[in-house]
Amino acid sequence: MAQLSDDCFAFGGPLMSLDAARDMLASRLVAVTEVERVALDAALDRVLAEDVVAGVSVPPHDNSAVDGYAVRFEDLSAERETVLPIVARVAAGDRPVERDPAGTAVRIFTGAPMPAGYDTVMMQEDCGEREAPDGTRAVVIRPGIKRGANRREAGEDVREDSVILRAGRRLRPQDVGLMAAVGLTGAAVRRPLRVAVVSTGNELEEPGRPLGPGAIYDANRFTLSALVRRMGGLVTDLGILRDDPAELRAALERAAEGHDLIVTTGGVSTGEEDHVKGAVESLGGLHFWRLAIKPGRPVALGQVQGKPFVGLPGNPVAAMVTFFCLARPLIQHLAGETVSEPTLFRVRADFDYRKKEGRREFVRVSLSPGADGELVATKFARDGAGVLSSMVDSDGLVVLPEDVTRLERGGMVSYMPFSEVR
Ligand SMILES: Nc1nc2c(c(=O)[nH]1)N[C@H]1C(S)=C(S)[C@@H](COP(=O)(O)OP(=O)(O)OC[C@H]3O[C@@H](n4cnc5c(N)ncnc54)[C@H](O)[C@@H]3O)O[C@H]1N2
Ligand code: MOO
């Protein structure tokens, strides 16, 4: 269970670095999801609960990589053509041929088991076949082939008893295929994390309803629910909660039942109308973090009746960026998934930028091809943490580290595509 004790980074205190926040999550959170078995056709995108060990080698037997002729390398002349009688034929799925290999060739096809004693396969395009006066056929081989050519060795893909997939991996199509390749029919996976998603704020209106004075439509609940689902979570949409202490308290208490995590958006800054923090505090414990990032400084973490709680800021871009930075690893820990660092790519910036030292900044950019095949990042024109269309019109985020204070146009920067955090 989440144990987020001692708030040494209370509001007004120093900003907390993202690395420190993530280290804290790593040291205090464990997987809360039980293990279940699923068939392979239901395993995609699930988190493996146990290492997977291969019970057989792949391929199980030496076999031919091409259509051609299996020969013994030692029978081939290095200077002249070699002519060898064709004494057998073996296709994929046939039992291995067993006979004395000396001075002979076997007609063989891709995937067919190598006959015992033969070590090399001539591709059919590289040799000829001729008929002898007695009606038998022979293969004519030009010099130049290497020993062992076109032979695939048993176990060259997977060795029997080796670990092919590690616990904590979210299964990709090729992972499911590899389990099938070693003869498995299913996998031990974690049950999906059950996540309650809530928006808070008196100004929020449900899409589809008329918009009253001072109201805006709730966007974050939909963005965050979609992000959680992309991570394999089972979302319960708990709707919009008003900035009312009693209502918030009752709803959060209900949300704690039957969920592994509660995610809220809005109401975590300092305002008098921000009641989420108080409600969480009264139901468990709250630890408010001011992260040294931009956008997305205020984040609340805590427990509601023993269940982990993460309160993301209300500004839609800040909600997404804090999700990527903090909620994402938090969900991975709870779901039993290995926490993955997004891969950053080096791209050229076509903008100047000034920033404060000590803060990691995420700049919304779109990518386009530049000279010499390199990629150029163009900054979205508006910076506001409330401009959600900036995320729609961007391809990803340029990540400017804490120690950087200025970026000159043309400099190389680290770029995180949205596909890395989905
Ligand atoms: N005095 C201070 N004011 C603010 C600070 C601060 O440090 N001192 N921090 C600012 C920052 S940074 C952010 S981010 C926001 C975070 O505030 P809250 O999490 O309390 O969010 P709200 O005040 O509820 O809303 C902020 C903004 O976002 C809109 N919003 C909220 N929820 C949604 C939603 N579900 N869908 C779309 N838009 C939403 C809301 O209407 C506000 O405009 O606080 C700053 N203030
Ligand atoms: O979290 Mo706030 O968005 O930095 O404006």
Q: If you had to describe this structure to a student in words, what would you say it looks like?
A:
- The chain is α/β, with parallel strands linked by helices and 422 residues long.
- It is built from eight helices and 28 strands.
- The strands form eight sheets. The protein has a six-stranded mixed sheet with strand order 7-4-6-5-9-8, with no helix packed on it.
- Strand 24 (360-369) and strand 25 form a beta hairpin.
- Helix 3 packs parallel to helix 6 and helix 4 (245-256) packs across helix 5 (276-283).
- Residues 1-11 have low confidence and may be disordered.
- The structure holds ligand LQZAQKY5 and molybdate ion (MOO).
- Molybdate ion is lined by residues 294-298, 313, 315, 318, 385.
| Oligomeric assembly | single chain
Poorly predicted segments: 1-11
Could you say how many structural domains there are in total? 4
Kindly identify the CATH topology of the largest domain: Molybdenum Cofactor Biosythetic Enzyme, Chain A
Counting H and I runs of at least 4 residues, what is the number of helices? 8
By CATH's scheme, which homologous superfamily of the largest domain applies? MoaB/Mog-like domain
Q: Strand content of the residues, in percent?
A: 25-35%
Helices and strands, with pairings:
Layout: H1 18-28, E1 35-39, E2 52-53, E3 63-64, E4 68-71, E5 82-90, E6 105-108, E7 120-123, E8 127-131, E9 137-141, E10 151-152, E11 163-165, H2 173-181, E12 186-190, E13 194-200, E14 204-205, E15 216-217, H3 220-230, E16 234-241, H4 245-256, E17 261-265, H5 276-283, E18 284-290, E19 293-294, E20 298-304, E21 307-312, H6 316-335, E22 345-349, E23 353-354, E24 360-369, E25 375-379, H7 389-392, E26 396-400, E27 406-407, E28 412-417, H8 418-421
Helix pairs in contact: 1-6, 3-6, 4-5
The structure holds ligand LQZAQKY5 and molybdate ion (MOO).
Cofactor: Mg(2+)
Pathway: Cofactor biosynthesis; molybdopterin biosynthesis
Domain MoaB/Mog: 196-333
